[in-house]
From TrEMBL, chain A:
<keyword id="KW-0496">Mitochondrion</keyword>
<feature type="compositionally biased region" description="Polar residues">
    <location>
        <begin position="1"/>
        <end position="14"/>
    </location>
</feature>
<comment type="function">
    <text>Component of the cytochrome c oxidase, the last enzyme in the mitochondrial electron transport chain which drives oxidative phosphorylation.</text>
</comment>
<keyword id="KW-1015">Disulfide bond</keyword>
<dbReference type="InterPro" id="IPR003213">
    <property type="entry name" value="Cyt_c_oxidase_su6B"/>
</dbReference>
<protein>
    <recommendedName>
        <fullName>Cytochrome c oxidase subunit</fullName>
    </recommendedName>
</protein>
<feature type="region of interest" description="Disordered">
    <location>
        <begin position="1"/>
        <end position="29"/>
    </location>
</feature>
<dbReference type="Pfam" id="PF02297">
    <property type="entry name" value="COX6B"/>
</dbReference>
<comment type="similarity">
    <text>Belongs to the cytochrome c oxidase subunit 6B.</text>
</comment>
Automatic annotation (TrEMBL), chain B:
<keyword id="KW-0186">Copper</keyword>
<keyword id="KW-0999">Mitochondrion inner membrane</keyword>
<dbReference type="InterPro" id="IPR045187">
    <property type="entry name" value="CcO_II"/>
</dbReference>
<dbReference type="InterPro" id="IPR014222">
    <property type="entry name" value="Cyt_c_oxidase_su2"/>
</dbReference>
<keyword id="KW-0679">Respiratory chain</keyword>
<dbReference type="Pfam" id="PF00116">
    <property type="entry name" value="COX2"/>
</dbReference>
<dbReference type="InterPro" id="IPR034210">
    <property type="entry name" value="CcO_II_C"/>
</dbReference>
<keyword id="KW-1133">Transmembrane helix</keyword>
<dbReference type="GO" id="GO:0016491">
    <property type="term" value="F:oxidoreductase activity"/>
</dbReference>
């Protein structure tokens, strides 16, 4: 147990030095094994957020949290497919 | 890892597997006690010349053999449920690793580490380095830091697969279009082997899984090396 806490402290320190790459924390909206919706919702939220903020002319840096969560959770191929669909205007979600 | 004369489970490499082994031993003890008792009664019954004594109106024995099995079942069910809920627990993971099943290899994505991604193919027998297990070794290991709670997200690109590592007590279906989550913490450094556990086509037996648990420093070195082109 001693070992365990030591390792976790070390880990968060190394991560903090590098800054950006903290992983997505537990989300009480998605407590189940199935995390498909968790990934999708954060992808939607990110693009809704950037759209809304860009419309108001505000800095979209505030949306980075959603981006971090969906990049942590979503398989790369899914993100690529959705990005392509958004470009072609065939994306099924409301953004 | 598994070895030829193995009868029981592999050694536990995670706290959850440790719990599962205890549950197994506990249930086996109950099974042995019941089996021996039943065998003893059968021997008594076939070696006696008395038949049909006290088969009517034996209220005491009726009560006992109704209540006792119920208690025994509860004694097995409660620890089993305890572990079931323990396995569902997500203790703030330190990192997230995604694995995607393909026909016929696993690909791994460490998107917390920029674009760290790779495919893990089985090493063919003729190319196998000496001392590595045949049909279990892959060209890339999934490296994790020891003692770090890790979130595994499992999916598939084509057909059903299943990502299983017995030493860690993990088996999770990989389903196209769905993302399944499981967590594990390795309790000591080492190599832990697993195999695809859902019939997925002709090379189903040849898409093994290798987890390499090492210190945080080695993990950081490895991730940096993997990111260098
Ligand atoms: Cu498979």
């Amino acid at each position: 147990m001693q070992n365990f806490s030591a390792a976790s402290v070390n880990f968060s320190q190394t991560r903090k030095q590098k800054g950006e790459y903290t992983t997505a924390p537990f989300d009480p909206r998605f407590p189940n094994t199935n995390q498909t919706r968790n990934c999708y919702q954060n992808y939607l939220d990110y693009h809704r957020c950037t759209k809304a903020l860009a419309a108001k002319g505000k800095d979209t840096k505030l949306c980075d949290w959603y981006r971090r969560v969906f990049t942590s959770l979503c398989p790369v191929s899914w993100v690529k497919r959705w990005d392509e669909q958004r470009e072609q205007g065939t994306f099924a979600g409301k953004i | 890892m598994a070895h030829p004369s193995q009868l029981g489970f592999q050694d536990a490499a995670s706290p959850i597997m440790e719990e599962l082994l205890h549950l197994h031993d506990h249930a086996m003890m109950v099974v042995f006690l019941i089996s021996i008792f039943v065998l003893y009664i059968i021997t008594l019954m076939i070696t006696t010349s008395l038949t049909h004594t006290s088969t009517m109106d034996a209220q005491a024995v009726e009560t006992i053999w109704t209540i006792l099995p119920a208690i025994i079942l509860i004694l097995i069910a409660l620890p089993s449920l305890r572990i079931l809920y323990l396995m569902d627990e997500i203790n703030d993971p330190h990192l997230t690793i995604k694995t995607i099943g393909h026909q016929w290899y696993w690909s791994y994505e460490y998107t917390d580490y920029e674009g760290l991604m790779f495919d893990a193919y089985m090493v063919q027998t003729q190319e196998l380095p000496e001392g590595t297990p045949r049909l279990l070794e892959t060209d890339h290991h999934m490296v994790v830091p020891t003692d770090s709670p890790t979130r595994m997200l499992i999916s598939a690109e084509d057909v059903l697969h299943s990502w299983a590592v017995p030493a860690l007590g993990i088996k999770t279906d990989a389903i196209p279009g769905r993302l399944n989550q499981t967590t594990f913490t390795t309790s000591h450094p080492g190599l832990f082997y697993g195999q695809c556990s859902e019939i997925c086509g002709s090379n189903h037996s040849f898409m093994p899984i290798v987890i390499e648990s090492s210190t945080l420093n080695s993990f950081e070195t490895w991730s940096n090396l993997m990111l260098e082109p």
